[in-house]
Amino acid sequence: MHKKLFVLSIVVFMAFVHSFGQQTRAEIQQRQKELQQELDDLNTSLSDVRKSQKISIRELNLLEQKIKARQQLIVNINNQLEDLDETIVKCNREVDSCKRQLDTLRGKYAESLVFAYKNRNSYNYINFLFSSSSFNDAFRRVAYLKSYRQFRESQAAIIVKAQAMLTSNIAKLEASKKQKNNTLTLQGSQLEGLQSDRKDKDSTITLLKGQEGDLNKEIAANAVKRRRLQTALQAAIRREIAEAERRERERQAKIAAAKREEEERERIAEQQKALTERQHQEVAINTPTPNNSVKTTTPATKTPIRKPTQTNTQTSKATTPVKPVPTPQQVQPTQTQPTPVQKSGDLAIAENKNNPARENRSYNVLENTDESLTQSLDFEKNRGKLPWPVSGGFISESYGIQTIPGTTLKQDNPGIEISTNSGNGAVRSVASGMVSVVLNDDGYSVIIRHGKYFTTYNNLSSVNVNRGDEVKAGTVIGQMSSDGATKSMFFMVTDSKGNSLNPTYWIGGK
After folding, report:
1. Which of 207, 204, 223 is nearest to 64 (CA)?
2. Which residues are CB-contacts of 169 (< 8 A; sequence separation ≥ 6)?
3. Which residues fall within 8 angstroms of residue 472, CB to CB, at 6 or more apart?
């Protein structure tokens, strides 16, 4: 029985290892397909650019992106080879283990067969049963013989299953070795392609050096266009901040007015309460005490009571006039000093204590509503996982400063250029937010606010949204511009201070 469990555990373990390896290999192969598709798109774009018969910086950028993609593909191939090596080693180990276990099972099974053959005389079984001391003992002996036969049958079944698993693992081992050979061939071809790409890059740089003056003009023209875009973006950020501050002041003014009204109601209620109590006290003083309520004391000499004269009465009335008691309706509200409106930062600090989401977060006026705060948090939570603004695209220009070796040419990109040769060219919002700007300056641009973050989509041929529209992640906002077979757009990510952020750190895999 222990041997049976041991063999079954080996079978389950091998199936688990194989399944885990398949999942990892599938992910590697999927990434390999994506990189190969990106290389094909880059080759198509390069062919399209070279049709103009004029060398350009765009051609160099595409070559650099092609080299990066091929290097990633080679790394991916190396990972696949490592995975295949591990799979082959594990398969070899499990095959050897199964062989040893099979030899042991076959030996034990052979021994049981020899024993059964030597004791095959039916007289031995009858003698074994009739030598029982009681009926219960005989019943147990019959059960033992039956279980022994079942054990032999299960031994044979286990050997058959183990043999089938061994055969399957040997076949998988051979398939892995074959796949490794194919992968090695692919690796060799990609290394050759990498060398060819580097030679193309070097020759392109040599040609660019001879056209440095013209290329400087091209870079300057692109820089002017990008500066206009950034100026519009900065103006949009300032406008959004001013609008948020105005709404915040209005909100605080309403809170302060409500607070003053509540304080005034409480003050009037307190005055009315005090007035009512004073009226009750005066009524109690002016009410005569009944005779039967006077307590009797020991008899004493009565002092005659002298009635006041008319003159004294008039004098008393003249000197101590009785003021009429005002009614609660006659109480007039007093003028109180208005409660000063709190500053935005002070009010935010007070509100942060009551809102766990804001507790450990510095104040930003663009997050003064729950909706804008949620948009900021979602944008930050999906850092590195935001969807691409286009489907099936590739980065044709990288973020940051781009230089050409051996020249003074330098280009600073506040975002990335994304191109594609497939799909319908639809541009989608990468997160939920509100459209802040739609402008047309040598192509449409859309700026979307996501809480305290902004995304910019430039070089669009058409737009589907207007300023103030609410959008969700994946909402189509426009179409990419087309230059021959290649469609492209410029994508930027900015914070509330106007700082450009590297979009490649925010968007995820395609």
Report:
1. 204
2. 14, 91, 94, 95, 98
3. 429, 432
Per-residue pLDDT, averaged over 361-371, amounts to 88
Q: Which CATH architecture group holds 372-505?
A: Distorted Sandwich (2.70)
Q: How far apart are CA 268 and CA 8, in angstroms?
A: 86
* Cα–Cα dist 498/453, whole Å: 9
Residue 172, both tokens: 């998988």
Is 328 a residue whose pLDDT tops 70? no
Query: What is the CATH T-level fold of the domain 2-209, as seen in this structure?
Result: Substrate Binding Domain Of Dnak; Chain:A; Domain 2 (1.20.1270)
Q: Residue 169 and residue 174: Cα distance in Å, rounded?
A: 9
Count, residues in the chain: 510
- Residue listed under structure tokens 């509200």: 333
Q: Three-class SS string for 277-323? A: HHHHHHHHHHCCCCHHHCCCCCCCCCCCCCCCCHHHHHHHHHHCCCC
pLDDT digits (tens, 9 = 90+) for 341-359: 444 455 555 555 556 667 7
Please list, residue by residue across 22-46, b when 16 or more beta carbons sit within 10 angstroms of its beta carbon and e when fewer do: eeebeebeebbebbbbbbebbebbb
Q: How many CA atoms lie within 13 A of 33 on its CB side?
A: 7
pLDDT average, residue stretch 399-418: 84
Provide the pLDDT for residue 122: 53
Separation of alpha carbons 69 and 41, rounded Å = 11
Whether pLDDT at 333 is above 90: no
Q: Where are the chain's structural domains?
A: 2-209, 372-505
- What pLDDT does residue 85 have? 84
pLDDT of residue 396: 85
Q: Can you tell me the distance from the alpha carbon of 463 to that of 489, in angstroms, rounded to the nearest whole number? A: 13
Top mean-pLDDT range of 121-125, 371-375, 393-397: 371-375
